[in-house]
Amino acid sequence: MTRASSRRPGPPTRTERGIPEATVARLPVYLRALTALSDSGIATASSEDLATAAGVNSAKLRKDLSYLGSYGTRGVGYDVEYLRYQIAREIGVTQDWAVVIVGIGNLGHALANYSGFGTRGFRIVALLDADPALVGERIGDMEVRDFAELEHIVETDRVSIGVITTPAGPAQEVCDRLVAAGVTSILNFAPVVLSVPDGVDIRKVDLSIELQILAYHEQRKSGEVALPQVPELPATNGLAPDLPAVGGGVSA
Amino acid sequence: MTRASSRRPGPPTRTERGIPEATVARLPVYLRALTALSDSGIATASSEDLATAAGVNSAKLRKDLSYLGSYGTRGVGYDVEYLRYQIAREIGVTQDWAVVIVGIGNLGHALANYSGFGTRGFRIVALLDADPALVGERIGDMEVRDFAELEHIVETDRVSIGVITTPAGPAQEVCDRLVAAGVTSILNFAPVVLSVPDGVDIRKVDLSIELQILAYHEQRKSGEVALPQVPELPATNGLAPDLPAVGGGVSA
DNA sequence: CCGATTTTGTTCTCACGTTCACAAGCTCCT
DNA sequence: AGGAGCTTGTGAACGTGAGAACAAAATCGG
Ligand SMILES: NC(=O)c1ccc[n+]([C@@H]2O[C@H](COP(=O)([O-])OP(=O)(O)OC[C@H]3O[C@@H](n4cnc5c(N)ncnc54)[C@H](O)[C@@H]3O)[C@@H](O)[C@H]2O)c1
Ligand SMILES: NC(=O)c1ccc[n+]([C@@H]2O[C@H](COP(=O)([O-])OP(=O)(O)OC[C@H]3O[C@@H](n4cnc5c(N)ncnc54)[C@H](O)[C@@H]3O)[C@@H](O)[C@H]2O)c1
């Protein structure tokens, strides 16, 4: 099977060319914490200070940073500006990435109005929508353009990141168009599972899911160990035979 | 959280009263997939079908579902309606949870206008803002109310979930007020690390972080193994001595 | 120049999460 | 009725991540 892939028997994945995904997800948090410290005029910070600012354990922070290299000074700590630059470089936000937003409804408007992206390594180069009534509307210093211009814009501005804020229905179709146009990273707000070819990264932001996760824990808090729990399994079976009459009998 | 852990030394965490966090985070995805199947008039689905719809591996899906109980039928699959109800019950969205949104700016407006929460187990009971100019504004069938009414509303409507969409500055203060008022679950959109007492759950949605994670992978794609990489470590040290002259000498 | 002190970088161990693989169990066909 | 064919539920192997602990390096005071 996958035995042929055993290159290094002893050393466990040296730094080589890969930072653990869990670490990658925390680097932006450290970056933000460092920026805050820098803005406060703090020049040096220990792993303990940084960990507190980032809301993590200091051992974890040190291990995370160690994947980037040895940027601290023992007995002293980390130079805030220097480390900030190193992390920004590692993430790739030392220069701006061009971004298009597709679907300028409620959420698209909010994103278009948000000023926080420009200061964090991203530049919104186009707001696209398929609705002719929206095309031409000005939002800040930008104008909503027709979704048909996608391919042209992606090529001209070398866009590699796309944000989908359309309804769930057209999301896959929009996604396919983005990929075909050359976009290789997608941030999806629509509540659907998008499928993309290899080589394209996709991340989703789903507010309903976040709330439902909170609800799960909330339920546990109130009921603690109580919970009606319902007849977990009726001794024999009784699964398919008797539907629990929740949403009414489904046709089909 | 890590309190009552050492109860059973031998058996590996029987179903008891705890579903792995990673599984909890996927249950809402399964719930949505089941709802979609149900809407399509499909009465039964195999783990393979479900896994495809949810965008996960079928073995993972089966293991996840096994934490809830034995709700499938071997050789057949899962009854869509039945399983949907069981998951909804486990998550706790068989009845609605009351939610307040604090900070009715760009993002707050978008959330207030969103109709998707009501159908997924949540009921927005109040839109709160500290800005007198906003108070009284109507959004859909709701009216923006003064943040000062928070305590009253939380008590009256038994609110347990709060959403923070204020700027980063006042977020911790708003968070403290929410907690003091009795809210025990918080969804935070402000780009800050909030600290809350034990017993309060907090989740964050951070768009800049999502984009930066995409940027990291994007950078890897283009440069592959290239990347200027910069003098990773100057042979000796050279860390603290020579600041990289990025932000100039800070007064610390 | 040396030892005390501080803090990093790393190693080790344990816990958690994912995937494979297959016996157990169900339905349907002959 | 009995076997063939599916599909679930789960034990076991494997991989990743978290945290404790500590040796290695750097500063500072004497
Ligand atoms: N608004 C929220 O707070 C919120 C919360 C959670 C999730 N979401 C999700 O985010 C997405 C957007 O939500 P919204 O409230 O902004 O919806 P919306 O209906 O206000 O906006 C959707 C926009 O997409 C455009 N659009 C539709 N089809 C298109 C296509 N094929 N190509 C280009 N543009 C197209 C529409 O013209 C519209 O302007 C939805 O999937 C929604 O489920 C929104
Ligand atoms: N808009 C976006 O697309 C977007 C994207 C990413 C992150 N965010 C974050 O989400 C948050 C909200 O963004 P926004 O664009 O809606 O900001 P915004 O400035 O439009 O709205 C903030 C609202 O909060 C209210 N507010 C301020 N202090 C308050 C207090 N103490 N109590 C109650 N209300 C208070 C303000 O009156 C205002 O209405 C910010 O933290 C922002 O960084 C927004």
Walk me through this protein's architecture:
Chains A, B: Belongs to the transcriptional regulatory Rex family. Chains A, B: Modulates transcription in response to changes in cellular NADH/NAD(+) redox state. The structure is a homodimer of 252-residue chains. Chain A is an alpha/beta fold and 252 residues long. Chain A has two domains: 69 residues, Winged helix-like DNA-binding domain superfamily/Winged helix DNA-binding domain (Arc Repressor Mutant, subunit A), CATH 1.10.10.10; 111 residues, Rossmann fold, CATH 3.40.50. In chain A, 38% of the residues lie in helices and 16% in strands. The first copy, chain A, has eight helices and ten strands. A seven-stranded mixed sheet of chain A has the order 6-7-5-4-8-9-10. In chain A, strands 1-3-2 form a three-stranded antiparallel sheet. In chain A, β4, α5 and β5 form a beta-alpha-beta unit. In chain A, α1 packs across α2 and α1 packs antiparallel against α4. The longest helix of chain A has 19 residues. The radius of gyration of chain A is 24 Å and the shape is globular. The N terminus and C terminus of chain A are likely disordered. The interface between A and B is large, with 91 and 92 residues. Bound molecules: nicotinamide-adenine-dinucleotide (NAD) (2 copies). One nicotinamide-adenine-dinucleotide sits at the interface of chains B and A. The structure holds a DNA duplex (30 and 30 nucleotides).
